[in-house]
Design goal:
By secondary structure, the chain is mainly α. The protein has one domain (1-50). It has one helix at residues 2-50. The longest helix is centred in the middle third of the chain and has 49 residues, at 2-50. The protein is rod-shaped. 0% of the residues are buried.
Length: 51
């Protein structure tokens, strides 16, 4: 019974750790993708004007 309690507790802690990590990393990835898209679109616009 104690082993099951410890196992459940470890699972809860790891779940909380992963959720916390994702909460911090997802906005960073979204920001990087937005910046990449903006840069790509501005380069495409410049290229269109040159041709």
């Amino acid at each position: 019974l104690k082993l099951l309690t410890v196992s459940n507790r470890l699972f809860e802690l790891s779940e909380r750790y992963v959720a916390g990590g994702l909460r911090h990393s997802v906005p960073l990835v979204v920001k990087l993708v937005d910046e990449y898209k903006a840069d790509f679109e501005s380069r495409y616009t410049e290229y269109s004007f040159l041709n």
